Amino acid sequence: MPFTLATWNINSVRLREGLVARLLAEEEPDVLCLQECKSPVDKIPTAPFAALGYPHMVARGQKGYNGVAILSRHPLTDAGSVDHAALGHARHVAARLPGGVTVHNCYVPAGGDVADRDANPKFGQKLDYMTSLRDAFHADRPERAILVGDLNIAPREDDVWSHKQLLKVVSHTPVEVEHFAQAQDAGGWVDVTRQDIPDGRLYSWWSYRSPDWDRADKGRRLDHVWASADIGAAAHGSRVLRAVRGWDKPSDHAPVFASFDLDP
Fold first, then answer.
1. What is the fold, at CATH topology level, of the domain defined by 3-260?
2. Where in 17-98 does DSSP place strands (E)?
3. Please, what is the Cα angle at 95 between 94 and 100, to 5 degrees?
4. Domain boundaries, the chain
5. pLDDT (tens digit, 9 = 90+) per residue, 37-89?
6. What Å distances lie between residue 75 and 51, 96, 105, 163, 167, CA to CA?
7. Which of 3, 26, 20 has its CA nearest to residue 71?
8. 50 contact partners, CB below 8 Å, separation of at least 6
């Protein structure tokens, strides 16, 4: 039976509870993974989501920062979380669907504004997080797994509005792209979005600093859907819901969707 999964950096689930409810009502994904929830787990507004048919959730949270949650129509088994790079942040949670597929929801550190780990410790944290992911995948190669989230790296030239102008800008620097590739290769992950949409510029994030974001279109593809190699061929139907970025008081990210012909 096919199921549809979406990933979305919501930038405060309590502030944007109504937007989450609207997405669930209008698009009806089977699974919705949220990042940057900025809420302790017990403060996440689960009742309105349950009323829409999403009574199941696994999450990790903390007050005011980070936080990841997986909402589902189907029962979920909490598959744990990993504190990658020992940052003490709520940036990863995993859940197992009834068919045995494990969904990993990740929120990679943004990395600050300076692409130098000595001058900017946040950039070092980002690189260390990606290295931790790489090492975890080397140690335990994923099977029947999906990894989604705001990975805060736009790896391809057509994942940014200007490759040349962003080469020294955090999220598209060569060292980040290399760390991204190492993590992806270590797990044998399939980039589902680019498997379905192989060519052309594609973005999932537009800065709040650009009030005319839609016309200027200076975006980046920071949000990703990966599938382990054994189920990569079952993925299809990828899309970025760009219009959501234009909703009232939006997140600066748009949701990314993919469907899988697997038992949920």
1. Deoxyribonuclease I; Chain A (3.60.10)
2. 31-35, 56-60, 68-72, 77-78, 92-96
3. 125
4. 3-260
5. 999 999 999 999 999 999 999 999 999 999 999 999 999 999 999 999 999 99
6. 15, 9, 16, 42, 43
7. 20
8. none
